[in-house]
Amino acid sequence: MTIYQILNTTAGKYDYVTDDQPTVTANASNALVNTIVLGDATVAAATLAANQKAFLTAQAYRFTANKTIVSGAQTVVTGVDLATEPANTDQIYNVYNDLAGQYTQVTGTDALAAQIEATKTALLKTIGLDQYTIVTGVPQPKVVQPATTGTQTV
Q1: Regions of the chain with pLDDT less than 50
Q2: Which of 1, 11, 27, 150 is 20 to 30 A off residue 116, Cα-Cα?
Q3: How far apart are CA 154 and CA 33, in angstroms?
Q4: What residues contact 104, with CB distance under 8 A and at least 6 apart?
Q5: What's the burial of 22, exposed, middle or buried (CB within 10 Å: 0-12/13-18/19+)?
Q6: Is residue 95, in this structure, part of any structural domain at all?
Q7: Domain coverage including residue 67
Q8: Phi, psi (rounded to 5 degrees) for 24
Q9: Is position 48 within any domain?
Q10: pLDDT at position 121
Q11: In terms of domains, do 23 and 47 share one?
Q12: What is the DSSP code string of the chain?
């Protein structure tokens, strides 16, 4: 039996994929689990990719870049949208690295795309969403027992 654990930042819990149907059945209503499904490494990889995409979409504001445009005596710094930026090899861009708190300077749209992707990859790794983990079991909710039992005399 293999159990894959995948961080789900949207739900604030873990997703689990296992090749063992009794484990899926036993944990279907486990409050510590976001989802548990029957599957293999392919399903775990697909779940990881979906969770990464959801996280990166929610965190899109962290991946910013700008460029400086000089026109005569006027200098303007403007934000850049990689999807609409014309391809080039000579424009200088500044890509903000949220983890380092500083800008990285790159030249050209290919380097811009690569630097933004590197920033995303570093963030995924930092929070533990760069890979799934193989675990030996699914965490179980704790059952709280009364501290003491007996009678009380007033």
Answers
A1: none
A2: 11
A3: 44
A4: 94, 95, 97, 115
A5: exposed
A6: yes
A7: 60-126
A8: -60, -50
A9: yes
A10: 95
A11: yes
A12: --EEEEEETTTTEEEEEES-HHHHHHTTT-TTEEEEEE--HHHHHHHHHHHHHHHHHHTGGG--EEEEEEETTEEEEEE--TTTSPP-SS-EEEEEETTTTEEEEEESHHHHHHHHHHHHHHHHHHHT-SS-EEESS---PPPPPPS--S----
Residue 34: predicted pLDDT: 85
Give the closest residue to 34 by CA, choosing from 52, 58, 10, 55.
Answer: 10
- Whether 69 and 122 map to the same domain: the answer is yes
pLDDT of residue 150: 62
Residue 107: inside a domain, yes or no? Answer: yes
Distance CA 3, CA 14 (A): 12
Tell me: do 66 and 99 sit in the same domain: yes
Tell me the residue type at 133.
T
Output phi, psi for 66, to 5 deg. -145, 165
Count how many domains the chain has.
Answer: 2
